[in-house]
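Hey,
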Amino acid sequence: MTNALDTAFRRLDALDLSAIQSTGDWDLGRTFSHLAQGVEFSMSGYPEQKPKLFQMTAGKLAFTVFKLRGRMSHGLDEPIPGEIIGDVTADAGLHRLWIALEHFRDFDGALRPHFAFGALGKDHFALAHLMHIDNHLEEVRGR
């Protein structure tokens, strides 16, 4: 877990908000807020869940494929089901993401099932968060 979280912190620390821009449908603030909510939901619970059968089959398979490939691929303009969408500056969104990752790193409670992948241990959740961040950073130019 430490490696995935350390890598996530390094990736975020290397971002110069004055020099980067989004090339996708979402601006940087929206993207960082989305990523932060994914981390927060892993501790507090996702507002909506895919059916257990989906999680145990397609969801589990998708996570396994992402893990084996070392990268995630998903619709970068698709919100997490139940996610709260709002306008936020890039700086505020990035700060929220950083704080969420710090809370996740220090969290020792029971993690909540991922809405699509189902139950994940802390190491696998850390990897999922890193792959999610990296996937969205594919739409960031100037980094």
